[in-house]
Amino acid sequence: MKRTAALHYGWVICLTGAVVLFSCLGLGRFSLGMLLPSMGSSLDLSYSRMGLISTGNFAGYMVAVLLAGTVTQALGARKTIAAGLVLVSLSMILISFCAGFHGILILYFATGIGSGLANVPLMGLISHWFLKDIRGRAAGFMVSGNGAAIIFSGLFVPWVNADSGGEGWRTGWLALGAISLAISMVAAFLLRNHPREKGLLPLGRAADAPAVGKAKTGEKTGIFRRDILHLGAIYLLYGATYVVYATFIVTAMVDQRHFGEDTAGQFWAIVGGLSIVSGPLFGWLSDKYGRKAGMIAVFLLFTLSYSFAALGLSDLFLYASIFIFGIACWSIPTIMSAAVGDYMGPEQAVKAFGFITLFFGAGQIIGPALAGYLADVSGSFNTAFWMCAGLTACAAALSAALRQSK
Question: Taking every annotated instance into account, which residue ranges of this chain make up the domain Major facilitator superfamily (MFS) profile (predicted)?
Fold first, then answer.
């Protein structure tokens, strides 16, 4: 088998993966923040119910994480990813016809299942197609698809709402679902489960160490080993905090600071543009300086961003918060997808990434519901953003205690 070709097919996998994430997470999840203000106004939703809609999506994602390993083993990663995208697209299309909270909650739960079925096996492909020396950068380029989707939704949703009035959110869901359906076909055509299907070896120069060596006394083996549990705890704090900002920052700008929806959408698009850099940048930094150093730096940036958003001072602090969040946005999933390959090796990477994603999903379920409740009680999102700042400071401390992979 060949290790390289004129263009190693690993980069086709990487680019296709970015398009998949554009759909399953970018459109399926991160467009919600742009759609919530008009949807909440049209259906008279409280902040608590807005938070529960987001939580429903992450509950579905959690279910998918539990199923992803079994489904991927039965169907293969390519078919599982394509099926997940079809579920994402159909559920989003059906949301456009909903008349109330409960229908949206059920369908957005289904969107979460589809997102998880697409995302978990996709991130596991990184460890099959790329060796350790470029794994972080490859994962970073892949997650940049999320940023492209944020740019798109930040510009597209306000444009649709301007032409469709108070019911523009319905057109938005319908259009985003149709785009996701087209992407599912692209994924089914281009993705491959393993380099050997193309007669290739993984791309990169450094040989991976054995997946799991002899465990130290008292240390569990497999996905339950101490390092993976440690990564899971860190991933939980990321999941509980970034999603609060992604879900509610536009609503906070419109309701609290009285920005127009067009202006708020432009700022959300700026977040997307900056976040395209975050994955490759911090993936490269983690390849060069280690996963631990990369995570410490990222969580300190998140703490600063959330603190600026919570201060409620001049708009300059808000702009700084948005800029910092955009730069750091997708760095943690990038580093995590590379880290599980470092600790567990490529053969166990999908299982290990699925396991820590359970922690990530638990954080995403808790975060929006709690933030929506705090906003209803306090009358603003400042308390929720302070909560996020405290949790990411804890995540930086946990990252500092993480052992380097061998």
Answer: 12-406
